[in-house]
Write a structure and sequence with these properties.
192 residues; mainly alpha; 0% strand
Amino acid sequence: MDQPATPLSSLLEAAGKGDRKAAEELLPLVYDELRQLAATYLARTPPGNTFQATALVHEAYMRLIGSQDPGWDGRRHFFSAAAQAMRNILVDQARRKASAKHGGGQKRVELHDVGEQDATLSENILALNEALTKLEQADPRKAQIVMLHHFAGLSMEETATALGISLSTVEREWRFTRALLYSQLAEHEQNG
C-alpha cells in the first residue's frame, strides 16, 4: 500500500477532503489506470453497451471527487472505489434503459436481427448487480475480492495484500465466489 508521504497518496487525501486543486492534479496521474480499468470493465459487459471508456472514467471520477471526504487509504482503496463507482454507473444506466419510460422490457429489434438477441445488456448488468448485492450481504469479504480482482483489475497477490489475507485464501474464495455468481446468473437467465 502507498505510504502517506507519496505524492499520489497526498493528492488522494487532499482531493478526498475537497481540495479542488489536488483533484485537478490527481486526474492526470490516475487517468490512464482508470481508463484501463473502465475498458476492462466494459469488455466484461455483454454487447450493446453504449458507454465508452472515456465517458465512464469521467463520470466515475466526478462521483469519486464529488463525495464528502471518502477517506481513501491509498492507491488500492481509490481504485476499488473507482471500480464500485463504475459498477454503479452501469447499473444506473441499465435501470434507466429498463424503465417503463424507455420501453420497459420491450426490445427494439430490426427485422434482420430477429432471433439473434437472447438477453439485453440491461438485464445482464442488473442480474449481476443483484447477485453481487446478495453476496455483499452474505459475505462482504468475498464481495470485496470480486470488486478488487474482477472489477478493479488487481492481481490475486494485490487483492490479498489489499485485504490483509493470504494468497491461498483469496484464490480459494475467488474460485468459490466465481462459481456461485455464475450459477446465480445462469439461474436468472433460465427464469428470466
